[in-house]
Amino acid sequence: MALTAEEWEILHLSLKVSLAAVVITLPLAFALAWALARGRFPGKLLLDAAVHLPLVLPPVVIGWLLLMIFGPAGPIGSLLENWFGLTVMFRWTGAAIAAGIMALPLMVRAIRLSIEAVDHRIEDAARTLGASPAYSFWTILLPLCSPGVATAVILGFARSIGEFGATITFVSNIPGETRTLSLAIYSALQVPGADAAVWRLAMISICLSLGALLFSEAVSRRLRSERRGHVL
Amino acid sequence: MSFDVDVKKTLGRHVVETSFVGRDGLTLLSGPSGAGKTSILNMMAGLMRPDEGHVTICGDKVFDAAASVNRPAHKRRLGYVFQDGRLFPHLRVRANLLYGHKLATPEDRWMSLEEATAFLGIGHLLSRWPGSLSGGEAQRVAIGRALLSGARALLMDEPLASIDPARRDEIIDVILRIRDELGLPIVYVTHNPAEADRLATHRVEITPSFL
Q1: Residue B199: what pLDDT?
Q2: Can you say whether residue B85 is alpha, beta or left, with left for phi > 0 and alpha for psi between -120 and 50 degrees?
């Protein structure tokens, strides 16, 4: 089935929003995961709970909070407006922020588990061999937790593709700007007799998710077999 | 004088305390389990900060509480061989051996990869992954990795503990050759008397104490 121009636009926008969401969230998720896995500081429990909020709060509440923060009167929104003349309201960038926030807890969790699985004594060994903390981070910790980072990227991407509630609350449902796959399916459902359109969009969505899952399985297999590597 | 160590550290109710001067050869730290032998090696290596005292390696003061000197672990140039090897699982043997070698300045390197593999008999293992090595092979690679990092002395924490008893003699021979042929000062922790008798040139008894 060939996609129509409109469907291409929806697919393209969804991919753009989701990729941007993962790219902006990944460094933040890694920093949070590292702090939660390795850090000892007051308020760690509170930070842990805060990171998980998007998982347990109704998405519409997250969308509303984003409106408060990024709106023209909000702390970040007014800053962006006054200093850079930018706004993320009703823009695809806002959709990416909403998707990124919703994906954050899943990404932090995946990365945190993989950091916790790395024996920190291996990093001690690297230190005694002359590795600075930064060098040991790039050459030991990051490669050893790369399967977790790959999982986080896939989970974050999948979560972003499916994001609906926070997005529609925060940036509305504007064709070509914020109408991603999920929002397009919702819109099509509101139109009497648009069953075929719903079917096609749902199919696209299923193919995309399935593709992401297969890709993630292939990547994690590859990472695992590289590690095992018995030489015959 | 290779080592001048005088450190004290309180860990919970435990007080780890020692003072010794190590000459060339192998200085053996012995004492019951829990006396803090490994903690002393960690304090020498810079992986644990003593509460008070000083650590001097080959005339170079790397820690002095009174003068606020505390050189980080990666600048102490001490090779550390751990009980459990701690090879980097995501790097092949060759990359493990060269990890510290590449970080050392050219003038600090005193052994080449070829010399190290010949000395330790591990040339055939270079393209293997750490996960596929036996305990003895892994420990020889760990020793090679420490030697190649340009270490001026070795710290060894029960390096034979995770090795099949039948293969221990091979590693003991390697350690004796490091001590005698390479002339590298070694601080060695064990509580196995037979191992101690074969290796030690000086002995330091670590006694546990409590608050």
Answers
A1: 94
A2: left
Chain A residues closer than 8 Å to B80 by CB: 125, 128
Distance CA A220, CA B152 (A): 41
pTM summary value: 0.86
The pLDDT assigned to A229 comes to 46
Q: What ipTM did this prediction achieve?
A: 0.93
Check the CA dihedral A228-B141-B151-B41 and report its sign. positive
User: Over the stretch B102-145, which tens digit does the pLDDT of each residue have?
Assistant: 999 999 999 999 999 999 999 999 999 999 999 999 999 999 99
Q: Which residues of A touch B76 (CB under 8 A)?
A: 128
- Contact state of B74 with A130 under an 8 Å Cβ cutoff: yes
- Closest-approach residue (CA) in chain A for B153: A128
Whether residue B82 and residue A121 make contact (CB cut-off 8 A), yes or no, is yes
Take residue A158 and report the two structure tokens written for it: 């999948």
What confidence category does residue B13 fall into, taking pLDDT thresholds of 50, 70 and 90?
A: confident
Interchain CB contact of B77 with A (< 8 Å): yes
- The chain A residue lying nearest B80, using CA atoms, is A128
Residue of A nearest to B47 (CA): A124
Residues of chain B found within 8 Å of residue A143, distances taken between Cβ atoms: 90
Among the ranges given (A142-156, A210-224, B131-145, B170-184), the one the predictor scored with the smallest mean pLDDT:
A210-224
Q: Residue by residue, what is the 3-state secondary structure of chain A?
A: CCCCHHHHHHHHHHHHHHHHHHHHHHHHHHHHHHHHHHCCCCCHHHHHHHHHHHHHCCHHHHHHHHHHHHCCCCHHHHHHHHHHCCCCCCCHHHHHHHHHHHHHHHHHHHHHHHHHCCCHHHHHHHHHCCCCHHHHHHHHHHHHCHHHHHHHHHHHHHHHHHCCHHHHHHHCCCCCCCCCHHHHHHHHHHCCCCHHHHHHHHHHHHHHHHHHHHHHHHHHHHHHHHHHCCCC
CATH number of A5-225: 1.10.3720.10
Q: Which of A122, A129, A136 sits opposite B149 (nearest CB)?
A: A129
Give how far A132 is from chain B: nearest CA, Å: 6
